[in-house]
Specification:
Layout: H1 3-11, E1 27-29, E2 39-42, E3 47-50, H2 64-73, H3 83-90, H4 94-114
Antiparallel strand pairs: 1-2, 2-3
Helix pairs in contact: 3-4
C-alpha cells in the first residue's frame, strides 16, 4: 500500500472530504498527465486538494513515505534520535532530517499539551500549513 493510500484510509475513513468546505458528494480524483498523484478536486468550491492538505506533511518537499518512516523511527517525535542518523536512514540531507525532527517534536509536544481527542495524532493541522480544517468542522465565512 502506498503512503498516500495509507493516509487516505486513516484521515478519510468515511470517504473523501474537501478540507475547505467539508463537502463529500461533489469530489473527484484528478488523473491528468500533469496532475500530482493523489490530487482531488471539490466541484462545490472548485479547489484542488490532497490528503496532505492541512497536515504536518503539507508544505514539504519530502515524500510522504519518508515522513511516515520518520514518524515510525522516532515513535512520533518522542524517541530521541540524532538528525544525522535519521538522515542516513531516510537518505535525506542533515538539514532536511533536522527540520523533520523539529516538526515531529513540536507536533508531539502540542499533542501532549492539548490532550485532545484528535484521533489523527501527528497528522493534525500544523501551524505552518495554510489551512487545518477537517470535514467535521468546515471553515466559518
Amino acid at each position: 500500500m502506498s503512503a498516500l493510500r495509507y493516509l487516505e484510509n486513516i484521515l478519510w475513513a468515511n470517504g473523501v472530504c474537501c478540507p475547505r468546505c467539508g463537502h463529500h458528494a461533489k469530489v473527484g480524483k484528478l488523473n491528468g498527465a500533469t496532475t500530482r498523484v493523489g490530487t482531488y478536486k471539490c466541484y462545490k468550491c472548485r479547489k484542488a486538494f490532497s490528503v496532505l492538505h492541512g497536515t504536518l506533511l503539507s508544505a514539504s518537499h519530502v515524500p510522504a513515505h519518508k515522513w511516515l518512516q520518520a514518524m515510525y523511527l522516532t515513535e512520533g517525535g518522542t524517541k530521541p534520535m540524532r538528525a544525522h542518523r535519521l538522515g542516513r536512514i531516510l537518505n535525506v540531507s542533515f538539514k532536511t532530517a533536522a527540520s523533520m525532527m523539529r516538526r515531529l517534536e513540536s507536533a508531539a509536544a502540542r499533542m501532549e499539551d492539548a490532550d485532545s481527542a484528535d484521533t489523527r495524532g501527528l497528522l493534525a493541522p500544523h501551524p505552518i500549513s495554510d489551512a487545518g480544517y477537517t470535514c467535521e468542522t468546515p471553515p466559518s465565512v
